[in-house]
Predict the structure.
Amino acid sequence: MRALLVGLTLAFGLCGQESTLVFAPNETTIHWTLGTLVHTVHGSFQLREGTVRFDRATGKAAGEIVVDALSGESGNSSRDSKMHSSVLESKKFPVVVFRPDHVNGQIPAQGAGKLDIHGTFELHGTGHEFTLPVEVEVQTGQIGVKSEFRVPYIQWGLKNPSTFILRVDDSVVIDLEAKGMARDGSK
C-alpha cells in the first residue's frame, strides 16, 4: 500500500497526464501493531504486487496494491496459526487489496508533501471505502512514501481474537514505508 502512495507522488512530477506506477515488493515494508491488555503484538506482511495508473490533472486513480495475507507473521507460531485460521482465514482470503480511485492533495515536484488517497480496502473478501493518509518525499527519479493508519478489522466483520482472559484492540495499526519509480503512461 505504501508503495502505491510512493508511486502516486512520483506521477505528479512526470510531464505526462497519466502515469503508471509499478511497485517492487522488496522496496516495501508493511508492519502491524495490535494492542492487548497484557502487551503489544508486532508483526509484518509482504507486498505481493502493485500497479497503479494515475492522472495528475484530475486526481483520478486506478489499479491495485496487493498484500499477501498468507505472509502475515508475528514471530509466535501459535498466535500466527490462530491469526491465519480464525481471524484472517488466509487460505480462503489469501490477499488484502487496496484499489485507489482518487488522490487529494498537492504532490511537490521535489521535497515533502501530504496526500489523502481514497479508494476501496478489500479485507476478508469484502470491500470497504477507505482514505489512506500519506506522507511523500519526492527526489529525482524516486519517491518515498510513509503512512500510518488503523484498520477496524472487527467492525469490518473479522473474528475478534479476544478470549475470556486476553482482550485485544478492535483495530490494528498499519505502518507502511516504500520507495518507488514511475513511468509516463504513454510508453
About this structure: Confidence is low (pLDDT under 50) at residues 2-16. The domain at 2-184 is CATH 2.40.128.110 (Lipocalin). Helices lie at 2-13, 77-87.
